[in-house]
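Why this split exists: single-chain examples teach little about how molecules sit against one another. For that reason, every record in the complexes split bundles all components of an assembly together and asks for one structure covering all of them. Below is a record exactly as it appears in the raw files.
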Amino acid sequence: MTKALLGKKIGMTQIFDEAGVLVPVTVLQVGPCFVVQVKNDREGSCKAVQIGFDERKRKNTPRPQLGHFDKARVDPRRVLRDVEPEDGAELEPGQSLGAEVFSGIEFVDVTGISKGRGFAGVIKRHGFHGGPASHGSQTHRRPGSIGPGTSPGRVFKGKKLPGHMGAERVTVRNLRVARVEEGRNLILVRGAVPGHNGGYVLVRKTKAVHAKG
Amino acid sequence: MARKKTETKQPRQLKGQDLLRSVENGSLRSDVPDFKAGDTLEVGMKIREGDNERVQVFSGICIGRKGSGVRETFTVRRIVQGEGVERIFPLHCPSIAHIKVQRRGKARRAKLNYLRGRSQRAARLKERTPRQKK
């Protein structure tokens, strides 16, 4: 067992829980993930396992990687990632991991690449309020003043200005696991997950310490 | 230098939106009667009061259905003490005890929002009778 798995965001939907409450959920397909390599330290204890997810045709795989996959006797995979193994877990190359990793787990963290917004202005990017829409106003979506004058005579570093937004690594912590379907390797987590449908995500048993039970 | 296939082929799996649909299908109710806008419905909602559960009935005219899949809802309108009251129910909500169609109304559109502006007499709909084959 590992502490994390690679997966794919399928999309969002709603389900009814036991109390009949409608819960917004994101469906994630985690696995089958295959152990490609087990990385031990000098004492021989396992420090990391490399897992691979999603099928890839042999002809589209770089030759050096083919050798790597063949060594583990695993068909080529699209994504490779090192993940931490569970303490005392026995893992071997070629082993398949699926949604059963998360059965009984209440909260997970999900990491993904957020949707790219391109070059975005300050209203979209930083939540500025913008200028008045009417009454002769000519500043509608502009940032306004970006600092004092002669002293300091420069713009402070980190000033919130327009620029590229999104398409970056984002982790959402503490998402409640609503359901685990081991047969189809699906987990349903409450709430939204970064990235677009079909995007790759890393699902990890949560690191956050939370008060709520 | 084709090496032997190292794993057994998985059965063909659903992908993307089809997979999402199949997850939704698991929470659909199968006992939803066939009804449409204009029909008079009686909807029983399970209500928990402490430990015991009872069924509260709300009946009125269905003035529309909206959405699809698990997200589908329907609106029921009735007049309570001279005041129009509308309730929106999720069609597949497990706390609905029953939906009974009491009368089939004849409506020529899918959303009967025009009933809102009408008095009780003007808001009556003719009964729909199944068309006979000649």
